[in-house]
Amino acid sequence: MMDIKEIVKPENLVYGKSELLIDTIMHYCPGCTHGVVHKLMAELIDEMGLQEKSVGVAPVGCAVFAYNYIDIDWQEAAHGRAPAIATGISRLNPEKFVFTYQGDGDLASIGAGEIIHACNRGENILVVFINNGIYGMTGGQMAPTTLEDMVTSTTPCGRDVDLNGYPLKMTELVAQLPGTSYVTRQSAQTAPAVRKCKRALKKGIRNVLDRKGTSFVEVVSTCNSGWKMSPAKANKWMEENMFPYYPLGDLKDGEKGNPVSNN
């Protein structure tokens, strides 16, 4: 049997979590991407000194309890209505950093009209869009982003595009709107991906502070419970199936009012 030796931590390497993360057990399923993105948002708000200036808007869905985990001001919104609530907060408090945190069932379905018009107006907010291709909280039903032939509780034989239509690429849609300044699609399944995602979120936050209009950061994610897979298999399935249809990278990076520029 091997001896258990003291773990030596390298110098200048910071361990632990942001003080903005509330010390409570998360309700997310093991392997869920939500917890990773929560951690990134807490780190960035902390690192950028924005705790007193930040207001998050969380709607119905798996992220409904986001206020339990990040120690900032939060506002609950009805299903899909987070962009409308964020619009009001941002316009009344232009000095604040305002963001929405929404899943695909919320943003791309009942909230499709809200997000399209908020982005078209160029509201000065950051939209964090978690796309796991399914309704995670309510039983694993088909979402607007569910892939073709993907099995869900409401498409047991797979999504049929003749019956259900095609998976909706919200990020490509909002990139066409003049009110958006930064539109990107990221992931968080590996350490390098997490670092890229954090840089994208930071850029979105900076754009809000610089009043550049709407920034939109999609995070292609897993729902291993809804997909009926282990976390490891869900990550592999996402890479092999979600990424080809929802390719990662920046779709737009410019100024509010400018035409789409692909970088």
UniProtKB/TrEMBL annotation:
SUPFAM superfamilies according to UniProt: Thiamin diphosphate-binding fold (THDP-binding)
Pfam entry (one): TPP_enzyme_C
Keyword Oxidoreductase: yes
GO biological process, one term: small molecule metabolic process
InterPro entries, per the entry: 2-oxoacid:Fd_oxidoreductase, THDP-binding, TPP_enzyme_TPP-bd
Highest taxon in the source lineage: Bacteria
The Thiamine pyrophosphate enzyme TPP-binding domain, residue ranges: 68-219
GO MF annotations in UniProt: oxidoreductase activity, acting on the aldehyde or oxo group of donors, iron-sulfur protein as acceptor; thiamine pyrophosphate binding
Keywords of the record: Oxidoreductase
Transmembrane helix found in the keyword field: no
Protein name: 2-oxoglutarate ferredoxin oxidoreductase subunit beta
